[in-house]
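Format notes (please read before filing issues)

Several people have asked whether sequences and structure tokens are stored in separate files. They are not. Every record keeps both together, in the order shown below: the sequence lines, then the token lines. Line labels are part of the format and must not be stripped during preprocessing.
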Amino acid sequence: MEDQNDASNSTLISDQSLDTAVQKKHQAMIQRLSNRHQARTRSKESESPSFESTDSFLSCFSNLKQTINSEINQIEQTPESFTKEDLDKVSVLINDLEKLVAENSYHLPSYEVRASLKTVGELKESLEKVSVKLVPKKKFSFKSKAVKQRQPIVGMEKGKVEKPEVVSDDKPSMMLDGPGFKNREREFLVENLKGKDMGEFTLSELDSCEARLIGRSRAIFIHKLKNCKVYAGPALGSVLIDDVEGCVFVLASHQIRIHNARQCDFYLRVRSHPIIEDSSKVRFAPYCLQYDGIEDDLRESRLDEENGSWANVDDFKWLRAVQSPNWSVLPENERIGSFHASIADS
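Then the structure lines:
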């Protein structure tokens, strides 16, 4: 009998030790997250850092990525010791990593931007997989869910406009794990980004479509568009454009890089000089999009001031001192003027 009591006491002590170890691990993780959160909050009081050296950016990016991976691994190993609030704190760190990429994309090669955003997407997926062990499915998600029902869209341009078929984004394209429109022809495409924690948005393989993005995003990727019109609210980081022809783009971003564009008009609000490569017969004019709340979106994206950069285009394939023949300023009498877009309540 005495031996049984001793065994029972030993088991109790062992359980208590295990609980104490789990609690210590949990507290240590909470402390690390708290320190990261405080550092993030302090950094918001000043301008975010800008890494003009690709190596220094990659070093900072790698360090933060390793920290996030470490926290996710700890949650995966002992999910019973963590809560949804812990997941939310790691989510904030991932969002900060995505913001770091967006705000420094001007100094990075386009392939580094794409690789970094792909890493961010993988971290989001990893955290979401871990979250299902703690929280019921669909309660914790980075992804923007598609709207299954059609919504009435109102978007008026000066004069009469014959609209293509109105559709909602019920077949979202996934590029770099982000939402978007893909493989569409002669459609009227609208995405309301307001109120969403939106990362990158993709427009890919569109023909004779009109696309409107109302609200803010972190980055926009545009690939293989022909005879399209794109009107987009401000992007905090970059707009990357590749292989477009006969299109009209109305865009606002900190950096806009254009590759392989032919006979396109760009209406831009941009903090740095627009960059073109392997492009011809492209024309530029100032940003002209209007929608309810756009002034707030531009201000929060630090794009509220027009600095004239839209007219100072850098052609990376034209190294001579004279004006590049591949781009020009769009004559005022050929501009579309102010364009207003709105979304009716669903």
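For reference, the curators noted about this record: Residues 20 and 279 are 64 Å apart (CA to CA). The chain has two domains: 2-131, 153-343.
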